[in-house]
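Hey team,

Sharing the Protein phosphatase 1 regulatory subunit 21 run so nobody has to redo it. Sequence (745 residues) first:
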Amino acid sequence: LASLVFQLRAQNQVLKKGVVDEQANSASLKEQLKMKDQSLRKLQQEMDSLTFRNQQLAKRVELLQDELALSEARGKKNKKSVESSSQLSQEQKSVFNEDLQKKIEENERLHILFFEADEQHKRLEAELRSRLEILETDAAQHQSVVDSLMKKYTETIEKLQNDKAKLEIKSQTLEREAKECRLRTEECQQQLKNLQAALGSRLEESLCIINEKVPFNDTRSTRYNALNVPLHNRRNQLKLRELAGQAMAFVHELVTALLNFHTYTEQKVQIFPVDSATDTISPLNQKFSQYLHENASYVRPLEEGMLQLFESITEDTVTVLETTVKLKAFSDHLASYLGFLRKILPYQLKSLEEECESSLCTAALRARNMELHRDMKRLTAVFEKLHTYVSLLALPSTRPEGLLRTNYNFVFTHIAASLHGFHDILKDISKHYSQKATLEQEVPTATQKLITTNDCILSSVAALTNGAGKMASFFSNNLDHFTASLSYGPKGGAEFISPLSAECMLQYKRKAAAYVKSLKKPCADSVPYEEALANRRVLLSSTESREGLAQQVQQSLEKIAKLEQEKEHWMLEAQLAKIKLEKENQKLKNSLSGHLTETIQEHSRLPNIAEQKKETTEKSLREPIKSTSLAPDVESREDLIKTHYMARIAELTSHLQLADSKSVHFHAECRALAKRLSLAEKSKESLMEELKLASQNITRLQDELMTTKRSYEDQLSMMSDHLCSMNETLTKQREEIDTLKMTSK
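Structure output:
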């Protein structure tokens, strides 16, 4: 949409520019038309004045002819008067002839002016017609552009509508995917909890087995720990092999560039300052050329040693400095090449000094030679540094005590710094040698062979510089990986592994790999994806019901404990009630016996009162006797009431427990549903926000499209109005031209 809007804006600018140009052209045409109209009016006025003068002259000529006829008629009658009148008529004729001649000349001049004006009018008409045709073609082109733009706008509107429908479908799919992702996250969280619990139990079992069954721990001794096979890191091995392949490619580039540099330097020594084809070169340069001729035997082994190192790094081995035995061979090859550089350095320096002493050497060339003199010394010193650090890296595979693991990072860092120094020195050599080559071309005795050799040396130095820069950046970028990957070993090992123990460790690793391969069995089929999707709801509900059941069990245990406490309390209350009942019964018996003795004494004393009290005593005697006789019935009734209430209490407690369990279950379900509802609301809010943003973007784009469409429609209407006005003005001009033609005719 942005690109479409940008194109529409660019086309809008072009159309605006075209409209402005057309307006300027129409304004200039109007001005020219006004000027031509003024000139035509002037010519028309002149024509009117000339026709008026011509009419006057014609009338005057007629009068003169009439006067001449009258004079001739009179001359017949009077000859004398004829003679006098002839003299007068001759004078008049001469005056008339002169006047007539002037009028004829003036009429001729006016005819010439009229002809010129007519020709100019025709040219103007032709120009206006050509301009009219051009404007008509431009109008047709603009109309075609307008039609194409309208077609494009309709296509873009349809495209935007299709995009809107696609976006709505995409939003729906994203919403479904979001729901699925939430369910998957919940499932993964549950799996994580299960795995943590399982791993914790397995860890405890493993620790118990180790403490009980393992009699000897070999990781405590570095000598025995060196024989343990470290964890195999296949990704690390593949990365190291890839890095070794890149390093081999860079070494190949450096070897090729060094071979070319030494070979072309040998050619240069033989042709400058003295050409060996025409004269004998100095013994120093002969010896220097002889040594340079042997460069291949020292340079090519570097590539071969790097190739052997690359082939020793495979996917199945454990690549550390203790096991990279081929690094020692590469270090030896680098040492031999360093000896070659040390051997040729004095001859190279003396050759440069001899060149400076030559008569062909200028002051500027001598300065360049001295700069190269210093650069060659620096180059040899850099190779000495590189050989020192590479030989240090080769020590763990031969003498582990020669380099500690803590110094690995130090050695790799200095190798990277040395490679950057090597790159800087080569850049200086390239700069100084290019200046030297340009100065040598200005020497009068410079030959084409010398120029070609200098170009070859410069190209080899440039290739050497590029290769060194690539190697330095490669080593700096992978410095941390080299330090980390080339120093790992058995678990807990803090010291170096000896080469013999490393070889034993590799043998054990191969045996272990073969044993594991023999035990390897095909894995069982996993749960199908559709089945897992179908069971995810069951899993979620089971996890939530499990949590609810756990809470319900906890609450039930708490209620059981409370009920036990209440049971004990009521047991104690029942025992106390029994004791109180026995005491009350004993008190009642004692009170009945005392009351009987008192009534007998009173009856003997007061017979009247005895009769009254006899009734009361009989009643009282009847009541306690009745109560004592009904005591077993009361106890049985109390037992029945007690058993009834106990059964009722048990029933109510069971109902209460059932209601509590249902309430806990419902509470767990409600909580799970609330959790799901909150997650659904959150997802709904996020999706509504995304949908709102998408709808806002769609409305904004539609508004922009409508505004651009309206602006283009306004511009098109303005252009059409302008074209109509131009057509009207052209028709008016045509009509005026036709009227001018008619009037001129």
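Confidence is low (pLDDT under 50) at residues 491-496, 602-631.

Ping me if you want the raw files.
A.
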